[in-house]
Amino acid sequence: MQIDLAVKDISKTFDDFMAVDNVSFEVADGSFFSILGPSGCGKTTLLRMIAGLTEPTAGTIEIRGKSMLGIPPNKRPVNLIFQHLALFPMMNVGENIAFGLKRRGDSKAVINEKVATILERVDLIGFGDKKVDQLSGGQKQRVAIARCLVLEPAVLLLDEPLGALDLKLREQMKVELKKLQAKVGTTFVYITHDQSEALVMSDHVAVMNQGVFEQIDTPQNLYNSPDTPFVAQFVGDNNTWSGRIRQCDQKTAEIETTDGRVFRTQIRQQLQPGDEVDLFLRPEAMLIQPDAGLANLNRFEVIVKDLLFDGANSRLLAHPLDADTELLIALPQTHQYDYIQKNDKIEIGWDEQSGICFLRKENQD
Amino acid sequence: MLKGQKRWGLFFFLAPVVLWLFVMIVLPHIDLLIMSFRIENDEGQQIWSLKNYLNFFEEPIYWLTFARTAIYSILVTFLTFVIALPVAFYITKVVKPKYQGFLLVLLLLPFWVSELVRVYGWMILLRESGVINHFLLKAGLLKQPIEMLYRDSTMILGLVYTSMLFMVVPIISVLDSLDNSLIEAAYDLGANMWTILFKIIIPHATPGIVSGSIVVFMLTLGNYLTPNLMGGKNSLWFTEQIYNQFIASFNWNQGSAFGFLLLVLSSIVVWLGLKLTRQNLKKVVQ
Ligand SMILES: Nc1ncnc2c1ncn2[C@@H]1O[C@H](COP(=O)(O)OP(=O)(O)OP(=O)(O)O)[C@@H](O)[C@H]1O
Ligand SMILES: [Mg+2]
Q1: Dihedrals φ, ψ of B38, to 5°?
Q2: Which residue out of A53, A99, A106 would a mutagenesis test of the B interface target, given it has the greatest number of B Cβ atoms within 10 Å?
Q3: Residue B225 is part of a domain; what is its CATH number?
Q4: What is the ipTM of this complex?
Q5: pLDDT digits 0-9 by tens, A325-365
Q6: CA triplet B2, B3, B7: central angle to 5 degrees?
Q7: Which of the four, A212, A284, A332, A339, has the lowest number of CB atoms within 10 Å?
Q8: Containing domain of residue A256, as a range?
Q9: Domain end position, chosen among A204, A233, A262
Q10: Which residues of B touch A151 (CB under 8 A)?
């Protein structure tokens, strides 16, 4: 498989603040790669370095095997969709899309044809003469994408392009964007702070925190086996316990939590008895009233504090009998659990294979 | 009822403005207009005539000066724009925000002194025994001091300098509202510096450029001091002709006619400018 974009050991410092710290990754031809991270972690800075708008302090960027060092943005085979789109208000939709083609010196006939084709592709047939401020948010979005796609870049960079849209439209554009990417086959590098966007659309996701990549993996792996506590917490919801290892072997450990419970869980890193650890558990890993015959379950009783109904994403808010740790428990909408009421006492169990356990770092709260 | 009250309120507030406009601007101009159509006959009586306007067309020195003034004013406006745009761009987009205020003050500073003092400043620099000649002689670049004053080019230099601020300030205010990411997006889509200038920056800045140009053009056209002092006898300005009629020849009728011709000229040029740039006065004045 051809590598479209290869970033090696890239860093950027502003004065003495490290915005991007030694980041490396590769993106394969035609794939959808996302960079997920909280606000201010350096995502935009990284993307701007790929586009050539910001000069890296160290490191190299290669696009289709060609080093981009010292090549200005207008000569790079990548295009950037800005956080706020940056459509040209002094031009109509057609002129916006034709802008890059004209700079390349394409003939008028070719330009007209390409603009018409791309407008059709993004479902904006007949919008060529409209002014930019006559468009809705979603339409502006598609014009911005069309303006870049028409140039057939090796890599399309997208800087939180859905951030300004309302929730409903965002859900819709998410699916559309993924479909569009599959249709045109252009390599997408997409940055976002919204984990659901990243998980839904991407082939691979990099989780970024304070200028560093914590993990690069498929969405499934990020969710199911996070490498670091940050990834575990940032991707998906969690129940968290702190505790200490009582005894352990290569694969499993027995943990005594601060609220006095003892759990058995799988471990994926070398731990010693006495180590302080954090234990993460997904809401859907908690089984409600598990079958008495199931082995290897950590079982305990909880009191239901509240029912949080949210369609397919409904939860129970509960706390253990003798502690006030708050727990989120997935509540499948299969009518099987309709009997559960507020203040009921129910049994909960979770499989020791679904626990995610990390050594607690002293410098991390 | 309420509507009637509102109208009276409006009238109450507008009355002083309207009165002021009428007394200070409309009345004198009507008087000037009437005067420009009258001449003194042999018996010393005022009679109606077109003679004042005919004089203008029959005497080449008059209409040549007039045309010169018009063309040079346009040239000065254009030169001011060419210099002001990069200055404004530098101040709004290149310099760090914390130095912006400082640079603006620097720009304003020369305008704290009167135009007369500023022009004398130039004269001290440029005259035959002036500072520049002194240094050029010292450096051995010149054998004889040269007279740099009293030429068209010096006069244009002075006029551009005097007009600078009135062009820079409106352009700064429009460029401030230009989103940097538009420039970057154009760069990213393959545009070079010149395309960005002509396709993004200038179209965005047009309202500011046009309002700056109107002010500069009118001020230049009506300027008396700078052409008189820096241009001398060699570079006549039409305002000097008007001055001569009123003060030297004491021919108020002729002077009024000239004044009106200048007013018509500036109106036509401004109107043409607005038409050419497809702007309207409302948008520009904002
Ligand atoms: N030109 C600059 N000068 C100084 N510091 C900067 C500059 N640009 C960005 N930074 C800093 O670098 C850090 C990363 O900024 P960046 O814009 O890359 O964040 P981001 O991940 O895109 O955040 P968001 O999700 O809010 O857009 C921030 O702390 C920011 O303050
Ligand atoms: Mg950003």
Answers
A1: -120, 150
A2: A99
A3: 1.10.3720.10
A4: 0.84
A5: 889 999 988 888 889 888 999 999 999 898 999 988 765 44
A6: 120
A7: A339
A8: 237-363
A9: A233
A10: 189-190
